[in-house]
Design a protein that fits this description.
By secondary structure, the chain is α/β, with parallel strands linked by helices. The chain has two domains: 16-46 and 161-332, Rossmann fold, CATH 3.40.50.1100; 52-148, Rossmann fold, CATH 3.40.50.1100. It is 38% helix and 12% strand. The chain has helices at residues 52-66, 82-94, 108-116, 129-144, 155-172, 189-201, 217-220, 254-261, 273-287, 293-308, 341-348; strands spanning 25-27, 36-42, 75-78, 98-103, 120-124, 147-148, 180-183, 206-209, 267-268, 313-319. The strands form two sheets. The protein has a six-stranded mixed sheet, sandwiched between helices. The longest helix is centred in the middle third of the chain and has 18 residues, at 155-172. The protein is globular and about 65 Å long. The protein starts with 24 loop residues before the first strand and ends in a 9-residue tail after the last helix.
């Protein structure tokens, strides 16, 4: 076996934002059942380590092109973390101040990452859920004349997934089978944008949508009220707090409504948060793929599909982010900071360099 070599990407990048996209599709070799082939699209390879880098970049660049965002204007957005981190990266690179509103229930490392990237983070009460942090962002935008990013309503969200994420999938599976595409939703941008292309160019590919089992708001059939700007006017009555951060706010976003109206999904499979945690841990320990609870949950649904899928089926699951966004969450419960008994025994098995105590 020869040593691996690399040759560079064949280009020099003018800015970090030029590195967004072209994330790899990776086969699962250990944990997937033998009757199917399962791939994951690893969005942690984006520069700020999540799928939300795509929409963050397009929201800002589309607003620049159309004159909706002025030089030096402050950007404000409500986010559970990944969109805020992506916006912080883009705004830092382009010179815009950023203010993020976020419920205080989301992981501490997310707010620290945004502040590290230069953003200000305004916390809102967890009892007011996603709707509360959303309303706070609107208040701040209206009061200060700031640019509201509007990830849950803007066409710029799904558009970037149609022009990048979907095209990458089409290119990577050119001439290959792709029987199932599995995705959760936060804003709905990924599934709406990708489905536009799959429905047209790969109509035989079944699109599987998933959401938390205890916050199955799409499955409820009830659409929350919205105003004329498509902004939510209420918290969805079927929402309950869930551990799959980044998925399913307490309202059905307008961006996702396209998927619902156009029947862009073939099956809706809810997943319990603990199953997502278990599969995220298996991805790390058995495949070396580090993803968060949302990625683990998507793979959990892919494995349910595999149970009844025809022999030889090919399944692609989206992995939205990296596991490092979840260090203070239940994903890392039980992962010790200090040495275990087995590790202490290994330390003592040779005479030198032993810890005291």
């Amino acid at each position: 076996m020869t040593i691996r070599t690399t040759s560079g990407r064949g280009r020099l990048y003018e800015s970090v934002v030029d590195t967004v996209g072209d994330t790899p599709v990776i086969r699962l070799n250990t944990i997937a059942p033998k009757n199917v082939t399962v791939y994951v699209k690893a969005e942690a390879f984006n520069p700020a380590a999540s799928v939300k880098d795509r929409l963050a970049l397009n929201i800002i660049e589309a607003a620049e092109r159309e004159g909706r965002l002025k030089p030096g204007q402050t950007v404000v957005e409500a986010t559970s973390g990944n969109t805020g981190i992506g916006l912080a990266m883009v705004c830092a690179a382009k010179g815009y101040p950023l203010v993020v509103t976020m419920a205080d229930s989301f992981s501490v490392e997310r707010r620290r990452l945004m502040r590290f990237l230069g953003a200000k983070v305004v916390l809102t009460p967890r009892a007011k859920k996603g709707f509360g942090m959303y309303q706070k962002a609107k208040e701040l935008a209206d009061a200060n004349g700031w640019f509201l990013a509007s990830q849950f309503e803007t066409k710029d969200n799904a558009d970037i997934h149609e022009s990048t994420t979907a095209r990458e999938i089409m290119g990577d599976f050119d001439g290959q089978r792709l029987d199932y595409f599995v995705s959760g939703y936060g804003t709905g941008g990924t599934v709406s944008g990708v489905a536009r292309v799959l429905r047209k160019d790969r109509p035989d590919t079944k699109i599987i949508l998933t959401e938390p089992a205890n916050a199955a708001i799409v499955g409820s059939g009830y659409i929350n009220k919205r105003n004329d700007a498509h902004q939510p006017e209420e918290s969805h009555p079927n929402f309950e707090p869930h551990p799959i951060q980044g998925w399913t706010p307490d309202f059905i976003p307008w961006v996702l409504q396209e998927t619902l109206d156009k029947k862009f999904y073939d099956e809706l499979i809810p997943i319990p948060g603990p199953e997502g945690i278990a599969w995220s841990r298996r991805l790390a320990a058995e495949e070396g793929i580090f993803t968060g609870i949302s990625g683990g949950s998507t793979v959990a649904v892919a494995m349910k599909i595999a149970e009844t899928a025809p022999e030889g089926s090919v399944i692609l699951a989206m992995l939205p982010d990296t596991g490092e966004r979840y260090l203070s969450t239940p994903l890392f419960e039980g992962i010790p900071e200090e040495m275990t008994e087995e590790e202490v025994a290994l330390m003592k098995s040779t005479p030198g360099y032993q810890m005291e105590g």
